[in-house]
Every structure is written in C-alpha cells, then in structure tokens.
Write a structure and sequence with these properties.
Chain lengths: ~450, ~280
C-alpha cells in the first residue's frame, strides 16, 4: 500500500513537472497581468482614476532584419508605447526574403498562437485563416471612426476588399515591380535602355559580350521573372484569370521569352543556385545591368546605386498581348486583427487603438518615407531618391496595375512553375509541359 | 524483483512520455496526414492512397533519393574514412593528442548554417574565394556549383562538418584496446601499417559498424548545406529539402507527410541492410 501510494505520488509529480513546463508561458502571463493590479491600483490615491491595466500586445510583421522600414516601424511602435505607458509591444519580426514567415503566420493562426496584429499578404495566401474566422472583418471598426477611415485612401480600401465586401486587413504601403536598370552602365557602354523587346535583346547581347551580367535573377526564386513574363505576354485580363480556365497559350509565349533571353546569355552563370538576395547583391555591386524586382529593392541600394538606377516596365515579348505599360503592383499586405484579441475584453480596445495608430496618416507617411512604397494614405513623401520618383511615375503612367500572379494560384502551383524555369530556359522541358503540370496541381487543389 | 519492475517503469516513464509527444505522435500524425490532400493549414480532403500513387510516379522524388544515396556514398567513404585515418594517426603520436583532438572536433561546434554561408562565399561564381584566387593566377573562373559538380561541391562541407565526431568515437574506441595487445605485437615485430590493419581496425570493428550506421542515417537529415548553398537546384535536391519544399513552401502537408513516411521507411530499410552487411562476430577483450 505504502509503496503504491509513493509510486503514485512520484508519477503525479512527474506529470505536474511536465505540465508546468508546457504551460509556463501562460502561467507567467497571468502572473504578470495580475500582480501589478493588486499592488498598484489600490494603494494610489482614491480620488484619482486607477492607472490603466497593463496590456501586452504582440505584433507580427516583416519590418525586421534588413527591411528598409525596420527603424521607421520601430519608431511608430515607440510613439504608441510612449503615449500609452501601460502597453508593452512584442515586436515579432521575420524576414520577408524567404518563405519561412508564411509558415510561421499560418502555424500561429492554426495553433491558437496568433499575434494580436499580423502584417501579412492579402489574397490567396491569407484565404485559409480568413475563411477559418481567425481574423476580424474591419468594416465596422472603420465605419465607427471616420477620422481614421478618411485618412486612408478610399481607392486602397476598395482594392483590398474581399469579393463579399469585407475588409480584412489595412495596408500601409503599396508596392510595384519592374525592371531596375543601371543607367550608368548603359551609358558607359553606349547601350540603349531596354524600353522594348528588341532593345532588351540588344542590351543583353552587348552586356554579355562585355562580361557584365545583363539581368540579375535566380531560377529557383524566379518569382519576378515569372510574374512579368506572364503579365506582359498574356495581358492583365488573362493574368487575373490565372489557371482557372484553359491554359492561355500566351503564358507559354511569355515563359519562352525567358528561354530566348537565356540563350543570349541574359542571366548570371550561377543563376540556378543563387537566391534573390544574391541576385540583388550582383546588381547592388554593379556587376549586373538590370534587376527585376519590387520597389523594396530600392531600400538596399547604396546612394550611388540609387543615383545610377531607374525603373521601367518589363518589355513585351513579340506577339504578346500586353500593352508594354502593364505593371505588377498594388497593396499586397496589410494588418490583420486577430479574432481572439477582439474577443478579449482586456486587449480589444488597445489592439484597435494600435491598429489605428499603425495605419494612421502619419504612421503611413513615416513608413512609406523609408521603404519607398506608395503610401496607402494621401500624404506627401519627400526626399525620395530619383529612382523611387521614377517608380512612382511609372505607376502613375501605367495602363494597368495587376497584383502578382502568385497570389492568384495555390502556392504549390506557383512553385511548380518556378521549378520548371531552369529546365525551360535550358531546353530540357517546354513551357507547355510546365504550365500543364501547374494546371494539374491547381485543379487538384480546388 | 517485483519492486525493480516498478522502478524500471518509473524511470522510463518520463522518457517514454517525451518520446511519445515529440516523436511517435508526430510520426503517427504524418501517416494520418499522408492520406489527405491539404490546402494550407486549414482545409483538408481525404484522398486515400492518392499521395502514395503520386509518390511512386514522382521523378523529382526519385532524383532526390538518388542524390541522397550519392551523398551517403561520399559520407561513408570520406567522412568515416578520414575520421579513421585521423584517429589512427592521432592515436599513434606521443604528444599533442589533446591539441589535435580539439582541432579536428571543432567544426562540429559550428552550426551547419554558418558553415554553409561560409561556403557560399567560397564557391560563389562572381566573387567567391576560389574564383578570386583563380583569376589572380590568370585562370578562368569555374562554376563550382554547376549541374555536374554541385552535389560533390556540397559534399565537401558536409563531410568536413562531421569528420570530427566520428574521429572522436574512433579515438575513444582505440584507447579502450588493452595495451598488452600492442606489446604482444611489438614482440612479434608487427608495427606501423600492419599493426593498424591487422590489429587496431579489427579490434574496433564494432565501433566502425556503429559509425557507418550513424553516418548513413545522418545523411538522411542533410538539409542546411543543400538549402543554403544551392536551394536544391542543379541536381542537389535531397529527401530533406524536397520534403521541406512540399510541406513548408507549397503548404501541401499531405504530400509532405507522405514523403516523410517514405524517408522513415527508407531510413529503416537502409540501417537494417547495413546491419546485415556488416554482421560480424563481436570482439570482446
């Protein structure tokens, strides 16, 4: 009897240890929020209002690492905590350079560990957690505070609306993608800027002959190569349909354009094994004449490279349906408010206040100022380098602005196309095979 | 005896709980998920053996398996081989043993990701260390991570990273050999190379066997070198990177889990096979 009870005790001790180890996080949180309430509030003068309860919020974003808006974002958060000393913000960041943050956001959302505010993609990428009701529709909150709502560009809010009219997230800055060209390298080598396909081919040939990388781009992370090839060859309408219907032969045409460029020696010798970061690096170091990238790439340029760069739309491959002035861009990410936080009476108001602060006119201005993106509010951005101004001009003159095609298909479909880029350009596989394989995956994913 | 059983149970219990939570449960969950077509984290549809059918007709998985086997070959020959040679050499020196032990063991302490980044800078075509050296000598640059050489180039840091670990295992095994064996050998006039081949190696055969099994199963886990140096391109995709791509980038956890199950089965088969092949009488001294 004695032995048995001893053993039971020992077993339960082991269990308690394991359980407390697993649950330590929650336990601490509870202690942290409860303890000050007991000690502070009652002892302060009875006539004064009790000090606001401490609130801890977690904000997940990609404004970290080498992101150009990292400091601006930290500044914006600090403004909030300075104004609300009872609030502590856990600034949870991850680099947007790789796909890892998608996994993190989705795992968090799926396991009940969602951040109070999450800065994440709008569209197909977010479909899972939006449909699962993990985040709050923001329409009512927007409508109840017209000063805040009016600060945000109405066209932007229209753009981020779901098909059912719900606004799930509020963007801060928009982006555009295009072909960054090193004007100085072009001028020094007497080469014309690649404003159409023939000039692009001529430029590729000329740079390749001189031992300068014509277009810096990786084959594995070939997002921007694919996005531009498809949009310019197939036109915005076919691009927006993605792979829902029959395969548009112009998609094939676009991808074959890449093969043509490869045969002329357009891409780095090691394009198969480098990543986006290294491709940017080649351009930043002046080893490459052109870089197909997004507006955020400006943030990483040195002042000299900024001065030497401009950005133009990717030219249309001969026979393509695009106008030659269609660009990829839009408001690709925004802040989501977690349903869990919304239901938590202690956090709700503070989280909404923080959301309003992060997407206020002044915060949008601060962040846009540093990352070169187009602001989601009607604010003036000053002191931008010429390349950023060229970018804004390109956007304002564009015939059409389409969001990137990878947001219009399942991630697996898009990576299937990505995995085919190298075989396509080297001639091992055809563009048709690539699109058929992708279509098969897309259909299976329905 | 009865009391002993209770204590055995008691002391094994925590480990069993942890193993169940972190190994058996995820494994069973992987088997479960492998019967579903998943769409991100939130939707899944039962598809029966669809993922397994896909697996058997997946060329990329076949290529990844072959690449894994190729790396395994390099690891078994060079990693275990170098470790053995180094251990024999260090074992036979009179002084400086501790110094060499530290030097050879050191790479293990550095994370694989850091070593990979270092090799990115060594192999880079445009401004890598090797190509800079070549161009300083007026030679043409070499594409180290080309289609034909990428896997071999990546095998270099992979082998180097873990040589020290097996080296230490061998050295420890050698230090356990009683000195009278060597004294007898000395009287018989056996020394040098002969001593190593006829005495040392047969006496540590059981350790060599363990090391080979560790090396083979360890190769199934190679990920960081491939991922950082070549992202699985140019014929470097291995099982680990392919599974990661399917599960984490494509967010197709169903098929990713199917590959995970395949890796486990493949690993178990390989180690059983190695065990069979290396079956030999154990030496006791």
């Amino acid at each position: 009897m004695g032995k048995k009870s001893k053993m039971l005790m020992a077993l339960s001790l082991v269990f308690v240890l394991i359980l407390s180890a697993c649950g330590s996080n929650n336990g601490n949180k509870g202690a942290a929020t409860n303890a000050p309430k007991e000690t502070n509030a009652p002892t302060t003068e009875a006539t004064k209002e009790p000090a606001p309860e401490p609130v801890k919020l977690r904000v997940f974003s990609t404004f970290g690492g080498t992101d150009p808006a990292k400091e601006a974002f930290e500044k914006v958060l600090k403004q909030f905590t300075d104004a609300h000393p009872n609030v502590t913000i856990d600034n949870d960041v991850m680099s947007a350079n790789d796909d890892g943050f998608r996994t993190k956001v989705n795992t968090d959302m799926n396991s009940g560990n969602e951040a109070d505010l999450t800065f994440y993609f709008i569209g197909k990428d977010a479909e899972g957690f939006v449909n699962a009701g993990k985040v709050v529709p923001l329409n009512d909150i927007l409508d109840s505070d017209s000063a805040w709502k009016d600060g945000i560009n109405p066209a932007v809010l229209e753009l981020v609306k779901q098909p059912d009219g719900k606004i799930m997230s509020i963007p801060v800055t928009g982006y555009y993608e295009g072909m960054f060209v090193n004007k100085k390298l072009f001028a020094d080598n007497n080469i014309e800027l690649p404003t159409d396909w023939d000039k692009l081919e001529a430029a590729v040939k000329a740079f390749a002959a001189k031992g300068i990388i014509p277009i810096s781009a990786p084959f594995d992370q070939s997002h921007y190569l694919i996005e531009h090839s498809i949009l310019t060859a197939a036109g915005p309408e076919s691009q927006s349909k993605a792979l829902t219907g029959d395969i548009d032969p112009n998609w094939e045409l676009g991808l074959n354009g890449l093969k043509k460029l490869y045969e002329l020696g357009a891409f780095p010798k090691d394009a198969a094994t480098i990543d986006l970061g290294m491709a940017q690096n080649y351009y930043y170091e002046g080893l490459a004449a052109m870089l197909i990238e997004g507006s955020w790439a400006i943030g990483g340029m040195s002042p000299e490279v900024k001065d030497n760069s401009t950005v133009i739309p990717y030219p249309v491959v001969p026979g393509g349906k695009g106008s030659g002035n269609d660009i990829v861009g839009g408001f690709g990410s925004g802040f989501y408010l977690a349903q869990k936080t919304f239901d938590d009476a202690k956090k709700k108001d503070t989280a909404i206040a923080l959301l309003k602060h992060l997407t206020s006119k002044t915060s949008i201005q601060t962040i846009a100022q540093s990352n070169g993106g187009s602001p989601a509010a009607d604010v003036e951005i000053t002191g931008q380098p010429q390349v950023a101004l060229d970018g804004f001009a390109m956007v304002s003159k564009a015939n059409s602005i389409s969001s990137a095609v990878d947001g219009k298909m399942s991630p697996e479909t898009f990576t299937t196309i990505r995995s085919f880029i190298k075989p396509i350009v080297t001639g091992e596989k055809t563009a048709k095979e690539a699109l058929e394989a992708a279509k098969k995956i897309e259909d299976a994913n329905k | 005896m009865k009391g002993d059983k209770k204590y055995i149970f008691l002391f094994l219990f925590p480990a069993a709980v942890l193993m169940s939570i972190f190994i058996y449960y995820p494994f069973l969950k992987s088997i479960y998920l492998s019967f579903f077509r998943t769409k991100g984290f939130f939707e899944k549809k039962f598809v029966g053996f669809e993922n397994y059918k896909r697996m058997f007709s997946d060329d990329l998985l076949g290529a990844a398996t072959l690449n894994t086997l190729e790396i395994m070959l390099y690891v078994v020959i060079f990693q275990v081989g170098f470790a053995l040679v180094l251990a024999v050499m260090v074992d036979s020196i009179k002084w400086g043993k501790a110094f060499y032990r530290t030097v050879f063991f050191f790479p293990i302490v550095i994370s694989g990701a850091a070593i990979s980044l270092m090799f990115v800078l060594i192999y880079n075509y445009q401004f890598g260390l090797l190509n800079s050296a070549l161009s300083n000598f007026g030679m043409d640059k070499v594409l180290w991570l080309s289609e034909t050489s990428a896997l071999k180039a990546i095998a270099v840091p992979t082998v180097w990273h873990y040589v020290g670990f097996y080296f230490i295992l061998f050295l420890t095994a050698m230090s356990k050999i009683p000195s009278d064996f060597y004294e007898a050998a000395k009287i018989e006039g056996i020394s040098g190379f002969k001593k190593t081949v006829y005495l040392t190696i047969p006496l540590i055969m059981s350790d060599i066997k363990v090391v080979i099994i560790l090396a083979i199963t360890g190769t199934l886990k190679v990920f960081d070198f491939i991922w950082i140096l070549a992202r699985g391109q140019n014929g470097t995709e291995v099982l680990g990177t392919y599974m990661y791509k399917k599960a984490m980038i494509d967010l197709n956890f169903g098929y990713g889990s199917t590959i995970a199950v395949y890796i486990v089965v493949f690993g178990v088969l390989l180690s059983v096979l190695t065990n069979r092949l290396l079956k030999k009488e154990e030496v006791t001294y």
